[in-house]
Design goal:
Length: 356
């Protein structure tokens, strides 16, 4: 027994001496994984003094998980959605109409909950004489400035988008390529005949007014609908330019019983966009109607977002649009199996992070 102890001591001596003489160097911390494309070298986003800097939000490492619900308490809805899916939304969307003031209390509540507020500004001008042309000509400068000053005064980041899905006729600010003859009481682009030049001029004018007002805490999101529904309309004509856009949003849904894949629905639009810009892409509206193919869409969609490093996340449109708008029921919780599929798919990608 004594001999074994002696041998052990002799064998351990050099090791113990080394510990006493010099502590081993600590292994370097592993670099945090990046799942999306980094900001371009030399990228510098102008920030006005006194407001939140948004540069770090434009090129996130992980995927945004956003949510829209039609209910009045969207923060509470997002919390419930997060508990059900395992990922608390870090973007919460709200719709505004032209003339509405910035709801700073709502936006601040979203920010304090750990999410970025997203303001979707629409233009329903029936009887008011407001068009893309009048905006471009400066007739609405006072409202734009008031909106910009409200955003600056709140100081927090906000994702700002105006006149979305412009490459179709179903909204009055869009493009009339297929005249509608369904309901004369519902406005559409064929009532106004906007041109690409007017649309671009209106966007640039708004952006310039925001900049002069110091509202650099707005992240500008330019968002067409996926091009498959109106392939005759080319997006490049509506591109305001890299200095006027932070994100490109591509809207796309799984509607009805026709099965769609991420690649089939979005990649043709991505390819067209990549001919004129390399800005980060986000899916600002998506959903799938309840039914047999819904779960397959969810699984494939989330795998697609996770796979492409130029796609930085999505916003799920969690609303039932039947029958008033003759659309689908996109509420995830209305199909229990979909919640399970959604939750499991989120664990297979770099989805979700707390906005600080």
């Amino acid at each position: 027994m004594k001999r074994r102890v002696l041998v052990a001591a002799v064998l351990l001596a050099p090791m113990l001496t080394g510990v006493a003489d010099a502590a081993p160097k600590q292994a370097p911390k592993p670099a945090k994984a990046r799942y999306n494309n980094p900001a371009p070298k030399g990228f510098k986003r102008w920030n006005a003094p006194g407001v939140a800097k948004v540069t770090k939000y434009i090129y996130p490492k992980r995927e945004y998980v956003g949510l829209f619900t039609p209910g009045p308490d969207k923060v509470a809805d997002a919390a419930r959605f997060g508990r059900a899916t395992g990922r608390k939304p870090n973007i919460i969307k709200n719709f505004y109409n032209w003339g509405d003031d910035y709801d700073a209390a709502w936006a601040t509540g979203v920010w304090k909950s750990g999410a970025l507020p997203q303001l979707e500004l629409e233009l329903w001008p029936r009887g008011r004489g407001i068009t893309m042309a009048t905006i471009a000509a400066g007739a609405e400068d006072a409202y734009i400035r008031r909106l910009a000053l409200g955003i600056r005064a709140a100081k927090i980041p906000v994702i700002f988008s105006f006149a979305h899905e412009f490459n179709a006729e179903w909204y009055p600010w869009g493009t009339c390529s297929r005249p509608q003859a369904d309901d004369p009481a519902v406005e559409n682009a064929c009532d106004y005949m906007n041109t690409p030049a007017q649309w671009v001029a209106a966007w640039r004018r708004m952006h310039s007014i925001f900049w002069k007002a110091g509202a650099s805490n707005a992240i500008w999101m330019w968002q067409p609908n996926e091009t498959g529904s109106r392939p005759e309309i080319k997006l490049r004509k509506y591109w305001p330019g890299a200095n006027y856009v932070d994100w490109v949003g591509v809207v796309g849904y799984q509607r009805g019983t026709r099965k769609k894949t991420f690649n089939g629905l979005f990649i043709p639009t991505f390819k067209q966009i990549r001919t004129f810009t390399k800005k980060p892409i986000i899916i600002p509206e998506t959903g799938a109607s309840t039914g047999k193919i819904r779960n397959a869409y969810i699984k494939d969609f989330l795998a697609g977002v996770a796979h492409y490093p130029n796609v930085i996340g999505f916003i799920w449109f969690n609303a039932d649009k039947r029958p008033a708008e003759r659309d689908g029921d996109f509420v995830l919780e209305h199909q229990k199996s979909s919640v399970k599929v959604f939750k499991k798919a989120l664990t297979k990608g770099a989805f979700g992070f707390k906005v600080k």
